[in-house]
Amino acid sequence: MVYLTRKAEFSASHLYHNPDFTPEENRRIFGKCNNPNGHGHNYMLEVTVKGEVDPRSGFVVDLKQLKEIMHREVLDAMDHRFLNKEVSEFLHKIPTTENIAIAIWQRLHTKLTAAKLHRVRLYETPDLFVDFYGEK
C-alpha cells in the first residue's frame, strides 16, 4: 500500500455563531470568532490517498486528476468565500476547522476511483490543524 499526499492552499472567511445560544453565550464561547462581519484564514489542505501502484502507469493515482478533483470540489467552492453564506454545508453548520475538514472529506471521497481517500488534513494556522480519516 502506498500513501500519496497532495497539498493546496485557499483563503476563506467565516463566523462562529450558534443561533441557539444567547449573544452572551456566543461571545463567551467563540470570542473574537463571533465577529458578525466574520474573519479570515489562509488554509493549507493536505489530501492523502492510498492504493496499490498500477503496474502499467506506475501511479497510485494520476496526480493531474487528483489536482483537478481538489480544485473542482474544494478550491473552486471555498477559496475566497464567506463560508457561512456561500458554501452549502455551512448555511446551518458552524464552519469550524473540524467541520470544514469533514465537509472536504465528504466532497472528495466519492470522487476518487483509482485510489481511496485516506486522510484530509486542514491547517488553519501553522500550529493548528485537524486530521480527518472519514467516518468509521
Summarize the structure.
This protein is α+β, with helices and mostly antiparallel strands and 136 residues long. It has four helices and five strands.
What does this structure look like?
The chain has helices at 23-30, 63-78, 83-86, 97-108; strands at residues 2-14, 39-51, 81-82, 116-125, 128-132. It has 136 residues and is α+β, with helices and mostly antiparallel strands. The protein has a domain at 41-132: 6-pyruvoyl tetrahydropterin synthase/QueD (Tetrahydropterin Synthase, Chain A). A 5-stranded mixed beta sheet has the order 3-1-2-4-5. The longest helix is centred in the middle third of the chain and has 16 residues, at 63-78.
Helix-strand makeup class:
alpha+beta
Envelope shape: elongated
CATH secondary-structure class of the domain at 41-132: Alpha Beta
Cα(first) to Cα(last) distance is 20 Å
- How many helical stretches? 4
Poorly predicted spans: none
Labels describing this entry:
29% helix, single chain, 136 residues, Tetrahydropterin Synthase, Chain A, five-stranded mixed β-sheet, alpha+beta
Topology:
Blueprint: E1 2-14, H1 23-30, E2 39-51, H2 63-78, E3 81-82, H3 83-86, H4 97-108, E4 116-125, E5 128-132
Parallel strand pairs: 1-3
Antiparallel strand pairs: 1-2, 2-4, 4-5
